[in-house]
Design brief:
Keywords: Hydrolase, Membrane, Protease, Transmembrane, Transmembrane helix. This is Membrane protease YdiL (CAAX protease family). GO terms for molecular function: peptidase activity. InterPro entries: Rce1/LyrA-like_dom (IPR003675). The chain is mainly α. Helices cover 81% and strands 0% of the residues. It is built from nine helices and no strands.
Length: 208
């Protein structure tokens, strides 16, 4: 499954891949809006799930993000790269983007996914329902056990943050910080490799 996904990703240009990503987020937002229309009595009920004045956005959201980021970096050191390979999607999506674009991307992803999985599904059907659905949607990772466990585990943890705080801003903040830091890391790795390759090429030219 992941090999087919990798082949598909390589066929897409950067613009096409980015378009697909934004389209996916739009579809998720439409699904969330449609479900919300039927599951919430009115817009006020949905807006009541958000509170910017809640300090738990920082205490729970930031703490969760730091925990997940530490686990991710530890996993990168412990497990071989192929066990954490997502088919090249994250590399293609984040590596060549500017920092402002990474900010926009990760904000979009975090808000969209948290609105759907936490705001709509978990609020109305519970933590386990949202976690199971999230796992089903990521079944393609089943052949990568470590990656699958990490992805589903993060989703479950974000669900717990929402359950503990009753505030959608908390899991959104955690999700955003996780994605943004890891996106910056991917970009940093790409830039470092690019600089190294250019340095090697310039050195080869001098020796000719």
């Amino acid at each position: 499954m992941l090999n087919k996904q990798k082949e598909l990703v390589t066929r897409l240009s950067d613009k096409e891949l980015l378009r697909q990503l934004y389209l996916t987020q739009l579809i998720m937002l439409v699904i969330a809006s449609s479900l919300g229309f039927f599951l919430f009595p009115d817009l006020h009920s949905f807006l009541a799930l958000w509170s910017l004045s809640d300090m738990r956005i920082v205490t729970y959201g930031a703490a969760t993000a730091v925990l997940v980021i530490c686990i991710d970096f530890a996993a990168m050191r412990i497990f071989p790269e192929h066990m954490l390979d997502d088919g090249g999607i994250n590399q293609r999506v984040f590596a060549k983007r500017s920092v402002p674009h990474l900010l926009l991307l990760t904000l979009t992803i975090s808000f969209t996914e948290e609105i759907l999985f936490r705001g709509i599904i978990q609020t109305n059907f519970g933590l386990w329902a949202s976690s199971i659905l999230f796992a089903i949607l990521h079944f393609r990772y089943l052949e990568k056990a470590v990656l699958f466990i990490m992805v589903v585990g993060v989703s479950f943890l974000l669900g717990l943050v929402y359950q503990w705080t009753d505030n959608l801003f908390a899991p959104v903040a955690a999700h955003f910080m996780i994605d943004f830091v890891l996106a910056l890391y991917i970009r940093f790795q790409y830039v470092r490799r690019d600089l190294y390759d250019n340095h090697v090429k310039s050195g080869e030219k001098k020796t000719e």
